[in-house]
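Hi P.,

Sorry for the delay on this. The queue was packed all week, but I finally got your sequence through. Input first:
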Amino acid sequence: MGRVEMPGAQDKVAIAVVGAGAIGRKHIAALAQSGVARLVALVDPSVSARALAAQMGVAAFATLDALLAAGVADAAILATPTPAHFPGAMACVAAGLPVLVEKPVTVTPAEAAVLAAAAAQSGVPVLVGHHRRHNPLMQRAREIVQRGDIGRIVALHTTTWFLKPDDYFLHDWRRAPGAGPMLTNLIHDVDLMRWIVGDVVSVQATASSAVRGFATEDTAVAILRFANGALGTMSVSDAAVSPWSWELTSGENPDYPVTGQSCYMISGTQGALDLPRLTWWSYAGAAGWHAPLQAQREPVSAADPLARQIDHFAAVVRGTAAPIITVADAARSLTVVDAIARAAQTGATVEIPYV
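Then the structure:
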C-alpha cells in the first residue's frame, strides 16, 4: 500500500477560533494536530489573545464582524461564553461561513430552534461541540446498545460529581443563574445518553444551592423517562469530592488525573455496560440474580475526541461528511436540560414533546 499524502498547508481547511479562553485554546491545540485543518485566525479582544496570535503567526481580530469582513477563513469555531453563541452563529450563517458552536448550542431552546431553521434554510453547515460523541469508546458503547447486544434498555445512571475550586467562581457570570453544573456539565451526560439510548420524553428533578449559596445550583438530581420505556437517573454536583465524573474517569482530558473508576451505567434485559471502562456484563448460561455474571472488557483504541471533531468538521466543510450532531439534534439535548431546570424549580413532571 502506497504512502498517503497529507494535504499541504494551503490545502487544509482554514479555520478561525473565536474566543481564546480555556476551551478556545483546546481547539487551537487540536488544530495543531490536524492533517486536514489549520488555524488561520484568532478572534478575541484581549491583549493576551493578540499575543498568542502573533506567536502562532495567524491573524488577530477583536470581533467576529471583523473576521467575517476580512474573509480569511473557510470556517469558524465559536468558543465564546454561551450567551454569545446564538448571535455569533447567526452572524456566521448570514455570512455563509460554516461554524462549529461549542456546547450548549445556545442559552435557550427557542434560540436553538431559530438557529436550526436558519441553518436548514441557508444550507450553511452548523455543528455543535458535543465532542464526546467523537470518542471511540462512546461510539463503541452506542454500537453495542443500538445493535441490541445487551437487550432492551431498562435503566441507566450517570454520576457527575467533582469539586470546582473557589477561584473558578471569581467571574461573576459563573455564579449567575444558568451557569451552574446542569447547563455546563450535565448537558454532556444528557447528550450522550440521548445519543446512545434514545430521546427523553419526560423529566422530574430537584436542585440545591445549599453548599455555596449562589444564585445557581451546585447540585441536581434528575429522573428521565426515555421514549423506549427506559428510565434513567442523573446526578451532578460541582461541590462534591468524588472520583466519579467523566473528566476524572475517561482520561479524555490530560488536565484531569484519572481515577480508574466508571461514572455511567447502562443496563438491559441481556447485559449491562459500565463506562468509560467499557466493561460488558452478562450471564454465561442461565440468567438470574443467583447466577454468576461474566465481565468482558471491550478493546477500543484511544483517540483525542477534540482532534477527531476538528477533522470531522473539516470533512463537513468540504462536503464529504454529514454532521454527527446538528443544531436540531443539540437542541433536543438542550431542551432536556431546560426541562430538568424547570422541573427542579416547580417540582412538577415536565413532559417533552417527542416527534
